[in-house]
Amino acid sequence: MKIIRLASFLVALLTCWSLTAGEVKRGEGISQKLFEKIVKNNPAKYPKLWQTIELVTQKNVDVYIEATKGSLGRAIGKKAIYLAPKMFLRAMDTHPEDRLVVVVLHEFGHVLFNRQPGVRSSSTADREYAAFKYSVKHALVMAELGDTGPIKQLIKYLPMRVKKGKKSAPHTQALKKLTKEKFWKQAVKTYE
Ligand SMILES: [Zn+2]
Predict the structure, then answer these.
(1) Is the alpha carbon torsion for 182, 49, 13, 18 positive or negative?
(2) Half-sphere exposure of 82 (CA within 13 A, CB side)
(3) Summary mean pLDDT of the chain
(4) C-alpha 59: how far from chain center
(5) What is the reported pLDDT for 18?
(6) Would you call 188 exposed, middle or buried from its count of C-beta atoms within 10 A (0-12, 13-18, 19+)?
(7) CB-based burial of residue 149 (10 Å sphere; 0-12 exposed, 13-18 middle, 19+ buried)?
(8) According to the UniProt entry, where is the signal peptide (predicted)?
(9) How far apart are CA 54 and CA 73, in angstroms?
(10) How many A from CA of 107 to the centre of ligand 1?
(11) Once rounded to an integer, what is the mean pLDDT over residues 46-67?
(12) pLDDT confidence tier of residue 9, bands split at 50, 70 and 90
């Protein structure tokens, strides 16, 4: 059963691949020199992060490395993700590579959600829920393929955000809902 689900996910992934792939681009607030340094040197340091970025660009998403305020990533519309330079530059103890992978998956989840019809009426909490859910589902597929790193990061951090996050924040509301669901509980049971 698991194998069939996995196979159908991969087939869906392959058939979704667009002929027009996206690219990694220099966004605002970052010099050409720094951008080139990141693109040249960082893939050797964070190969899994760049595999994930590659996967996303193959699905017709442009990934901008851009100085962002606060958060590490954001997504806009149906084909743009923005990642903060500090994701690539700073040695972040709280953000091992698997957690950076999860950031990309979350933003990609936003893009996929935005590509669905009728999303305009959805609330911010709905959007966050969809993005988080996608990141968990994708991490579960990675785990089934043998890499449990990203799902373990999610299991570690998502419940923490429910506890520590502002109750009224859309992220907190979304995660509160998600972490009550059966598939999440099953994931925790399997990979914690
Ligand atoms: Zn989000």
Answers:
(1) positive
(2) 14
(3) 91
(4) 13
(5) 47
(6) middle
(7) middle
(8) 1-21
(9) 16
(10) 6
(11) 96
(12) low
Write the CA distances from 53 to 67, 127, 165, integer angstroms: 17, 21, 28
In the reported structure, the alpha carbon of residue 139 is separated from the centroid of ligand 1 by a whole-number distance in angstroms of: 16
Residue 53 dihedral angles phi and psi, to the nearest 5°: -60, -40
Q: How far is the CA of 157 from the centre of ligand 1 (A)?
A: 14
Cα of 1 to ligand 1 centre, how many Å? 31
Q: 118 CA to middle of ligand 1, Å?
A: 18
pLDDT in tens, 98-135: 999 999 999 999 999 999 998 888 999 999 999 999 99
Strand-pairing partners, residue 81, are 63, 75
Q: Please give the residue range of the domain that contains residue 109.
A: 2-191
Least confident range of 2-6, 7-11, 131-135: 7-11
Closest CA to 67 of 41, 42, 43, 38: 38
Give the residue-averaged pLDDT of 84-96.
Answer: 84
User: Longest Cα pair distance anywhere in the chain, in angstroms?
Assistant: 49
What's the sign of the alpha-carbon dihedral 84, 89, 95, 100? positive
| H-run or E-run covering 13 | helix 2-16
- The continuous run of DSSP H or E covering 54 comes out as helix 47-58
Q: How many structural domains are present in the chain?
A: 1
Q: What is the distance in A from the centroid of ligand 1 to the CA of 166? A: 15
